[in-house]
Specification:
This protein is mainly alpha-helical and 76 residues long. The protein is built from three helices and no strands. The chain is elongated, with a radius of gyration of 17 Å.
Length: 76
C-alpha cells in the first residue's frame, strides 16, 4: 500500500514542518551524551530527576527555555 503525499499547500507545509521538527529533536537527542548535572549551571538550582534522565542536561527547565529564547532572538 502506497501512501499518497498531500497536495494541499497547508497539508504540505504541515508535513514539512513536522519532518523538520522531528529531525531537529533527533539531532539534539544525539548530541546529549554523558551524565546530567544535578544543579543548573546558570542558577545553581537543582535539576528535576526526570529531566536529568535525558542525559547531558546542564540547565534547569526555566534556564534552558531562557537560553533557547535568547539564542532564537540572536538569530534574527
Amino acid at each position: 500500500m502506497q501512501l499518497d503525499r498531500p497536495t494541499d499547500p497547508i497539508d504540505l507545509a504541515t508535513e514539512q514542518e513536522t519532518m523538520s521538527r522531528d529531525a531537529s529533536i533527533a539531532a539534539v537527542r544525539r548530541s546529549l551524551v554523558g551524565e546530567s548535572r544535578k544543579s543548573c549551571v546558570a542558577c545553581d538550582e537543582p535539576i528535576d530527576e526526570m529531566r536529568r534522565a535525558l542525559g547531558g542536561v546542564t540547565r534547569c527547565l526555566d534556564c534552558q527555555k531562557w537560553a533557547e529564547l535568547k539564542a532564537k532572538r540572536a538569530k534574527r
